[in-house]
Amino acid sequence: MSRTPDARVRDTQTKQIQENITNVEKHFGELCQLFAAYVRKTARLRDKADLLVKEVRLYADTETPNLKIGLKNFADQLAKVQDYRQAEVERLEVKVIEPLKAYGNIVKTKREDLKLTQSARNREAKQMQQLERMRQRNPSDRQIISQAESELQRATMDATRTTRQLEETIDDFEMQKICDIKKIFGEYVTVEMAFHAKALEIYTTAYQHIQNVDEEGDLEVFRNSLHPPDYQSRLEIVRANSKLSLNRTGTSMSKSGTLQSGTSSRQRKRDEAEDDEEEEDEDDDDLEEVTDDEH
Amino acid sequence: MSRTPDARVRDTQTKQIQENITNVEKHFGELCQLFAAYVRKTARLRDKADLLVKEVRLYADTETPNLKIGLKNFADQLAKVQDYRQAEVERLEVKVIEPLKAYGNIVKTKREDLKLTQSARNREAKQMQQLERMRQRNPSDRQIISQAESELQRATMDATRTTRQLEETIDDFEMQKICDIKKIFGEYVTVEMAFHAKALEIYTTAYQHIQNVDEEGDLEVFRNSLHPPDYQSRLEIVRANSKLSLNRTGTSMSKSGTLQSGTSSRQRKRDEAEDDEEEEDEDDDDLEEVTDDEH
Prior knowledge:
Two copies of one chain form a homodimer. Helix content of chain A is 90%, strand content 0%. Chain A is rod-shaped, with a radius of gyration of 41 Å. Chain A is mainly α and 295 residues long. Chain A has helices at 4-60, 65-137, 142-211, 215-226, 231-241, 245-261, 265-280, 285-294.
């Protein structure tokens, strides 16, 4: 009868270990699925940003030189951020999702260890019942009772031994679990930090590319594209022949004339080349190189 | 006849302005939609991370004290990142998507300006045809021809005036467009940078919370929860009665016994309180305060 409280303690212990294993199984499974969903959404965000990069490049091809270069450089930086987002996705899969997934098998082996212990304990309980029966049926047969007692003692020692083994296994499992949580969550944070740090660095460059766009230079190019070189002078001849011209349109004329005079022939040629590109609407590698040289 | 090349120049110009407006309409529309998609995916990512925060908190409630505190603090930081992601979403909507959307109306007014100019030009062309007709039908009627000439001159001046106005409007539009692109893309980068900088800062704290988890302390708590205080001593009595005990399980006994001895009664009490909480599985505010005091 002295063993019964211990058996009860061990049953509580077993129940506790079982709950512990089930708890880890449940929460590691949930965490795994939620991290996987987080990673999938990150990949979808990268996809959308990739489309944005593509569109910024398409738009850049239709724009005046400075804005075009600025937008192309901006798109390059935005694309770089997506490359790092892709790296983030891949690293989270390897360093967070895979280790969490691995707990499915780890938990399975712990359950088997628990089962071994439980059957040893069942044998002990059965042996205990048998001893009780012997004592009731043959209270004076010392030999039979002594034999049953020593069999119970063996079963108890066996149950105690596997319990100890289980305790050690569960001890290791618990230690491993805490260390793995620290490692996995630490990896998650490290991967995220690496991405955010890179993004911060790249966006700083992207910001400069956009802010450096010289709108005045582009506006000049734009004006020249609307006023072909010989248009202004011929218009003057028409105006000279007209009696009404000077009074009505003198002001806007001189304004536009002044802006016109600031244009060099180099800029005009560049502008014409620009127009050809717009019509072809192609991603010209040679032009990209010129772009790089200029900035 | 001297005006025809100018008219042709202006037709080219009009076509160019039209193409320019259509181009802005197309690309600003595309950019608007793609930025909106990017923002939507960012919001979905925030949603998934929110679920992750919730699950980490649920899991924390089932864990030993140090890991519980570490996980709760980690979840708080992860939640903070999502708050900043929400701010990112809202700011991108206001500072990027809305201004791009506004170009729908801006483009519409530019199209109307273009229409006004085109009708003035159509009137001029009609007047020119009429003059030609007069010259062919009544080549010697100086008065009729002179009248048609002055009407054409008026139409020409009117066309020239509205053309000038259009040029100025388009000039402003072009300048505004480049400045807006710089502003909108600049805002995009600024909003993203603010988020990444905050995330980097918060994850640094999150990392410390996770790495500071004392696994040895938790393991002790875990062991005590498996070995109730009086279990060990009673087991010793059982063992002393058994002839087989010392030979078979001496090693694992002494190991487990040593680890056991390191446990204070304070830790045991804390552990029991822990168990109660686990059973209730509630988000205890009082415990959260204790957590904050300790870290």
